[in-house]
Predict the structure.
Amino acid sequence: MNTRTLVLLRHGQSQWNLENRFTGWVDVDVSAQGLAEAIKAGELMKHEGLQFDVAHTSVLKRAIRTLWTALDVMDQMWIPVLRSWRLNERHYGSLQGLDKSEMTARHGEAQVKIWRRSYDVPPPPMPLSDPQHPKYDRRYRDVDPKLLPSTESLKTTLERVLPYWHESIAPQLQAGQVVLVTAHGNSLRALYKYLTGMSDEKIVEENIPTGIPLLFKLDHALRPRSHRYLGDPEAAKRAAEAVAAQARARK
């Protein structure tokens, strides 16, 4: 039975990851560490011998730069790259730009965890009048304003990502192409939930580390036969734990 190959790659650490702020759709670049993580991701995929046919990313520079950097390391910058707003990070509503640990101190760790990690509870919405609302951003000018979020839960993020999966990514995999998707913690967490069938309850505790490629081998129906992080499994575990710790209040 022929297998299909898919790699999910979360962008390298962003400047706001470093500053422990809710980022969402704000177009923040990678940090110096994030750039190093992107280089390492490219090295891991090169060592694995991966030869991609096509890549997908969001319209946010931290994902785009991570993809460029990793493809450069692999000498595969020539492959087609498709960008879509549907692969953007989850929209964090009125929390965007705020410090995670300060919000934990103010609202409690349980409430912030619900906003950050729950499956179907979104943060407070961003007002439509806010100049940071995506409807005012020219990169979304061709998107129906009714589709642009003011806030999202992981559930609604998955609902936003799935049409792109079915229309663009899945057909390429079915055709036997090797596909790389470089995106964000929650858009990839949504895809991970869909692919693995993970429950609403378990996905709350699932963390995707920055800059470590996640390799899926899929069957003809695009069901996972196996999946694993490239490189040192313990390093991936430690990186995922670091993601989980981001919202804890600073002492």
Remarks:
- The radius of gyration is 17 Å.
- Residues 154-174 form the longest helix (21 residues).
